[in-house]
Design a protein that fits this description.
Length: 78
């Protein structure tokens, strides 16, 4: 299944909204993921850049854990 741009947009907006609700910078979120995702990669996800379309499942899991989001909520966002 090809991920479309609007799906990337929704995913990126959800990550950004949850991060900001916690009052975290992208650097802080990176630290909360154990460094699995760099702050520049988080920026690319939030900006819905095309190279973020291939985000690995273990990175999605780390984002969900760091932001206290159910993985299903992240999946449902796309």
């Amino acid at each position: 299944m090809e991920i479309r741009q609007e799906q990337l947009n929704r995913f990126g907006l959800l990550i950004e909204r949850k991060r900001k609700q916690k009052g975290w910078s992208m650097s802080r979120l990176s630290k909360e993921t154990g460094g699995v995702l760099s702050s520049s990669y988080i920026c690319r996800i939030e900006r819905s850049e095309r190279e973020s379309k291939n985000i690995a499942i273990h990175k999605v899991i780390k984002l969900a854990e760091a932001l206290d989001i159910a993985i299903q909520d992240l999946v449902d966002s796309i």
